[in-house]
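Reminder to self: tokens first, then the designed residues, so the page reads top to bottom the way the pipeline ran.
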């Protein structure tokens, strides 16, 4: 393993106990049946109105599920999931370990959002921090995390969840499912999170990266302006038209 693969801003949560998958199935946007060895899945926990609270990648670990999440949001995610646990014999806890990434094949599994993002795997939290990950992700138009998605600010489909494999429309109910399904049925997403060249931040700006010359904005689809439009997003916009 190359030393420079660690994503130090990521952390792990283990969900274990009785019927872990059934527990998560009623909460997250992804179908837990799709979470298999070598097949991690991107998902989110939403508000009842269908707005993103936390996004993460789910990994199968025998009977348990490991959640690859933002390190700064790990404790808040654990607290939120614990609200839904009630009296179930389920443990939700922070665990040691690291998330690793490489732009080149050789180790790990393809990122479940977009194959061009590269390869990802779990291991020890050791080695040098990977370089280039954030820019690589942003130039592909992929947003993630509380700063970019906004907590309780952005409808999940406006985060490009359908195009980036972050939602299942064939599973049963989950928190926020009603509004998400309604938007999908109408086949129209009026606003999108997009990456654009850095300019003066405004009301639509979610995150700015002066070192990269990029920013993330929440724009109406008819006013995307100078936003980066990768192929996957161009296809989505064409289907919405």
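Designed residues (241 positions):
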């Amino acid at each position: 393993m190359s030393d420079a693969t660690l994503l130090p801003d990521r952390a792990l949560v283990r969900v274990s106990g009785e019927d872990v998958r059934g527990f998560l199935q009623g909460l997250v946007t992804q179908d837990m049946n799709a979470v298999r060895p070598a097949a991690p899945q991107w998902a989110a926990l939403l508000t009842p109105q269908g707005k993103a609270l936390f996004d993460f990648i789910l990994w199968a670990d025998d009977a348990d599920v490991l959640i690859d999440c933002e390190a700064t949001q790990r404790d808040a995610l654990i607290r939120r999931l614990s609200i839904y646990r009630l009296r179930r014999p389920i443990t939700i806890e922070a665990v040691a370990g690291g998330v690793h990434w490489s732009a080149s094949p050789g180790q790990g599994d393809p990122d479940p959002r977009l194959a061009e993002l590269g390869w990802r795997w779990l291991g020890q939290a050791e080695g040098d921090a990977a370089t280039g990950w954030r820019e690589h992700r942003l130039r592909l138009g992929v947003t993630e995390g509380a700063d970019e998605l906004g907590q309780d600010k952005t409808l999940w489909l406006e985060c490009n969840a359908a195009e980036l494999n972050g939602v299942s429309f064939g599973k049963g109910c989950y928190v926020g499912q009603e509004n998400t399904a309604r938007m999908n049925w109408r086949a129209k997403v009026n606003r999108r999170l997009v990456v654009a060249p850095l300019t003066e931040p405004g009301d639509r700006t979610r995150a700015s990266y002066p070192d990269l010359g990029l920013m993330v904005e929440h724009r109406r689809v008819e006013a995307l302006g100078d936003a980066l439009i990768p192929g996957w997003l161009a296809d989505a916009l064409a289907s919405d038209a």
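Residues 162 and 168 are 8 Å apart (CA to CA).
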